[in-house]
Amino acid sequence: MKKMIGFIAFWIAVGMLLMLFLTHHYLIALIIIGLLLLIGYNFYYCD
């Protein structure tokens, strides 16, 4: 289950990177992307 949550969080972060180019709220988007990538990495690779 943790691997699935990590995988989903990683791809949400990738989608948010695309959103970054379409919005003017860069700081908020970067914070959310960083958190999702961190969660995705920890859940998927760290057991």
Q: Which descriptors would you attach to this protein?
A:
elongated; mainly alpha; 83% helix; 47 residues
How many β-strand stretches? 0
Strand content: under 5%
Continuous helix count: 2
The helicity comes to over 70%
Helix/sheet category: mainly alpha
Largest sheet, strands/sense/barrel: none
**Run of helices and strands:** HH
Poorly predicted runs of 5 or more residues: none
User: What is the CA–CA distance across the termini?
Assistant: 11 Å
Mean pLDDT: 84
> How many whole angstroms does the radius of gyration measure?
11 Å
The general outline is elongated
Number of domains: 1
Please characterize this protein's 3D structure.
There is one protein chain. With 47 residues, this protein is mostly helical. It has one domain. 83% of the residues lie in helices and 0% in strands. The protein contains 2 helices and no strands. The protein has helices at 2-20, 26-45. Helix 1 packs antiparallel against helix 2. The radius of gyration is 11 Å and the shape is elongated.
Brief digest:
It contains 2 helices and no strands. It is mainly alpha-helical.
Topology:
Elements: H1 2-20, H2 26-45
Helix pairs in contact: 1-2
